[in-house]
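Figure 2 data, in text form.
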Amino acid sequence: METTAIKSVIEACNEYKNKSNENNLLQLQAQLDVLISMTSGGKSLKLFKAQKLLPTTFLTCVVELLYDLNSPMELISKTLSVLFNLVSDSEICKTLQSEFDITASLVSVLKHYYRGGLSDKVVLQCVQTLQIVTYQYKIDFPNSFIVDIVEFLVTNIQEEESKMTLPCLSLIANLCRNSIAIQTHLKVMNKLMVIAKTLLNYIGHPNLTIVALTLSILATPVFYKFIGEKLFSKGNNKETFRLVFNVLIHGDLATKRYVVDMFVDVLKDENIQQELITYDKFGKCLGETLMLLNCTDSQITEKVLELVLVFCGLPYLRNHVCKILMFNQIVQNQGCTLKNAPEQPFFKLVQWACQPISTNSQVSLKAVDVLREMNEEMIDSGSTVEVSLRFDVTLPIATELLTCQAVADSPTLNLHCLKMKKVVDFLRTLCTDEFARKHVAQSLDLQVISGILEFQLHHNKVTKGQRPKQSDWSDTGVDLVFHTLDLMYHLRNGIQAINQLIAKVLQNALFMPFLAYTLTSATRERIHICLELLSISISLTDFPITLLGENITAINSLKPTELDGLRYRPCDKPLSPPPTHSIYHGSGDQQGRQPCQSQVDSLIEKMKTSMDLKDTRASDMMAIYEHKVVSLQTQKRDLQDLLEAKELALTQADRLLTRYKSRNAQSEAEAHDIRLLLQQSENRIENYLDEKKQSMQEKKQLEEKYSEKQTRLQEMEARLQSVGNELNTERDEHSNLRDVHEILKKHADGLQGQLENAKLCIKELEDDYSSLEKEKDDQEMAIDQLCQEISKSTKSNKDFKQQVTALESKIKTLKKVIAEKEADVVNLTTELQKHDEIQNMIHKLTGAKK
């Protein structure tokens, strides 16, 4: 049914191109509606992947509809809806980027509808599709459409918040992260301050996706140097990490993507690494992040694993990840397996590693990498003595993954070889521990290993004398062969007959191209493993060393011819720029090739009409043109590789130049600031020396005043002691007169009131005495503090004067208190005299009565 729908769309599109009437338009729109329903809702898009003629023709028709800007707006809108559903698949999205240049097409539609004010819906659809297309895709800059889209995005994010805000922020984050040249262009536009202010307003936005996008943009180099360093400073790091982990844990897929990208960019700074290591809630946040592995969405799991691998790149953080995954009672319970496993991140990680390449390629690859990192950390840290590596869970899965047979013409062969290589690397990591090596030797089957090597020796392009590219499965297969042989070499003491298999492979003539290819490569790990195996091979009697030399000579002879093909020749005709209306970017001069093109067209017509090409001239022409097309394609690929390398070198040089200029300006500014600080410090030192002399003189004066006050206080203490003695004698006499008071109740009432008043005065005097002692202690403490402060030359004169005035005010108050107390003492003496007179009168009266 899906194939029929695709064919119907192609037929309707061709009919509409031949005759653009209303009936054909309605029929095409109806077929597009069917495709929209077929591709929406996360449905399978296998039939739309451009591996055969039908899906390629369909994608060509869809993209050609976008190039015709005179098409009705409804047709453009439905076409954009179909594209939006298709680009959700990463493979289709890469095909549209590389083969159809979909970015330029979408920008042209965006410019047409935005500048004309025709439809906000189409503009929004274009931006949303560009948001997905440009994610993790590097766009060459400078070019005209990127300048236009950057101006459009900068203008829109400065306006009021709308539906356009989120996709515009996403598009800016994609463009800035993948291209330093675009970041430099933003800097040249002199709008960094305006954009930064707008982004800072979105930090506290309730939409977590907008917050994640804002942080991702601020983490790019141009914004990080401008304002991002303040956001990720030591004072703000705790709040920033709390915000980032909150967005990562509770956000949706788009939010998690940009938060992980931000972490990858920010953790390149060593200061941020140290702050994250010392973050007190990092363990809790990391545990909640790892629990996201329990979700069923493979894209979310892929981003979580990418973040975990970034953490594993830092030694201390890798230890944290290892503890949360492995140092767990449930994980260490030998009764827990994958069948009855609880919702633990370790078991989920193993389950994701088991996923097939055809459905979840990147997730399974990254899961194997995380398992290798965990085992490497436990072995290196010596934790295997305390904690089990759970061989009963991981080794059966690893051996089962190695048994998966590869198909020579499979489109996923490169991913299959890459996963096999990662599984072999996982086993190599286990072999670094002696106890683990025994378990690996027991679980590994030599027939499986032999099958892997035999497939590569018979199907790899290296055996045919070709030099594969880095993205080709044959290049990955070379690593798989050498890593497998290295694994076998580590297990040579644990498995019988493995030495014979190693010798058999090393003596095989088909293995010589692998050795020659690896010895002439630029990868350090390849050469080290190759030299180890070569040292073993030379000791073998039947080792074909002559054949190895011939293969190395053949590879070295190919290098000058490849370089000559890449060199520019002045006599060659320049390549014309690609036409803007074409889907595929062709090259070459169209003039001067019309006669040849007519002959090729005639041959194509013969092929279409099923005519046999029996004449030798036509067959020779076909062979010539096939050879010429192949050579032009290889030359084009080589030129593109060289151009990309040159562009990368230019961008790196520009980045180093700007970095050097900025550092030079910063150093000059810092030197100027240091000069100013030196002058200010010299002036301050002179002022401090003058203040020190004045403070020493004031210190002597204060010491003299302190000695005088101390003598006065001693006199007051003596007076108070005498008063206390007198009060004690009075108390004794008062106790003796109690009997007399029983007889003289009438006279004793008045005297009793006077005695109570005297007691109150005595208590007040005692309280005053205690307060004076406290004040004396306070004065001594203050004087000690003053002495310490005087010894420090860094104190200012104003603070010292304030303390002196405070002491003088306290002394004045003390004088007033002493004067008041002296007056009270005089009053008390007068009252005591009166009391003595009253007692004498009482004695007289009692004597007269007797």
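Caption note: The two ends are 143 Å apart (CA to CA).
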